[in-house]
Amino acid sequence: MVVQSAGHGKPRGDGGECAIVFRMSEPAVTRSRMSVAEFLRWHEDQPETERYELEQGQPVLMAPERWEHSQAKLRIARALADAAAAAGLDCDAFIDGPMVQVADDRSYQPDAGLRCGPPLPPDTFLVPDPLVLVEVVSPSSERQDRLNTFEGHFRVDSLRHYIIVHLGLRRVIHHRCPAPGAIIETRILAESPVVLDPPGLTLSVATLLG
Asked: Has residue 87 been placed in a domain?
């Protein structure tokens, strides 16, 4: 099934960011509004056991994840890495940890992703040029609620694929934006392969779902 995401993929006069992201978690104590740069400095002083994202200038503490969720992230990142290596592409897969900045006061950690090009500095906290981003939804995951609502545009020009792996429904939702300002194409997949073009990869739905 192919669906055009009404209203979110229309060309815009400012260059038209395309693709989408959904986030929701527990807010930390309200404090002065922070930029992403300020947030990253603040984050370095927090306990290593705590993970935060930045939402509208406020740090948001991320909830613990179940075993099923963590294993799915590893499996997906490995599938992306293996597919890129098999295709001879100069691409790196990554798992949550590095952040993606979507606005001056907003950054988040995708469950997994893929970027292509020269290696990033080893001490960077941000992935500036993701090509593929993946979120995992499990039956026990709070992400189900936030994935039902569009919160806004994903403002990274390099992004071409936003994938939701829904473990409970046994479905993969593939949002594809062929170019900035283009209409977003949405495919809900149960068996058909996930075609990522660019960069020219094909992933099995069965592999992503496990």
From this structure: yes
Cis check: omega of the bond before 199, within 30 degrees of 0: yes
Tell which residue, 184, 174, 86, 78, has the closest CA to residue 132.
174
Do strands 112-116 and 91-95 pair parallel, antiparallel, or not at all (unpaired)?
antiparallel
Please tell me the predicted confidence (pLDDT) of residue 154. Answer: 57
> DSSP assignment, residue 97?
S
Is 61 part of any domain? no
Return the structure tokens found at 62.
């991320």
The residue among 58, 49, 165, 41 whose CA lies nearest residue 107 is 58
At 140, the pLDDT band (50, 70, 90 cuts) reads low
pTM of the model: 0.81
- CA atoms within 13 Å, Cβ hemisphere of 64: 3
Assign residue 120 the CATH number of its domain: 3.90.1570.10
- Overall number of domains in the chain: 1
